[in-house]
Predict the structure.
Amino acid sequence: MVPKFMKRSSQPDGRKKASRPWNPATFYIVIFCFIGSNGIHMIAQKNEFTNFSRRADAKIRLLKRVIERVQNGEDVDVKGLLGTGDPKKENEWEQVIQEAEEEDRLWQAKARRREQSKSLQDTEGATETGGPIGPPLSDEGAAKTSNTDDEREKLSPVGMPPRAFY
């Protein structure tokens, strides 16, 4: 009771069966499956974000209405409107607050990374150019046009290839 793929030989005389040639469409099938699954994932993410936005907007509108009514001096049952004491409504509020905080953390982290990469690029740009743009000036203030390889290595920033590769 051994499965066919685990048997050593399917031929009675011991010869291995010739394998089928590779199907050239296999690559496209795999790629299209990958693209399709990414598309489905993106649609699911979009729907999830839309649902989150709707819930958050509904909660924000409710809070604005309650605040306006309180500011207008109306007698409002704030606990009743906001669902204090009702475990289901309290869970909804907790989820909305947690999702909003998580989204805020993600935005802040992305902004921090953007600032870090920008400052890193600014510092790298300053070290790569080595100061003002153009060839280094000699003691007399005129631009040098011919440098030996040793002088060029000393003047070029670290990690730069020799002049011949430019």
Q: What stands out?
A: Residues 117 and 123 are 10 Å apart (CA to CA). The two ends are 68 Å apart (CA to CA). Helices lie at 25-71, 78-82, 87-129, 149-155.
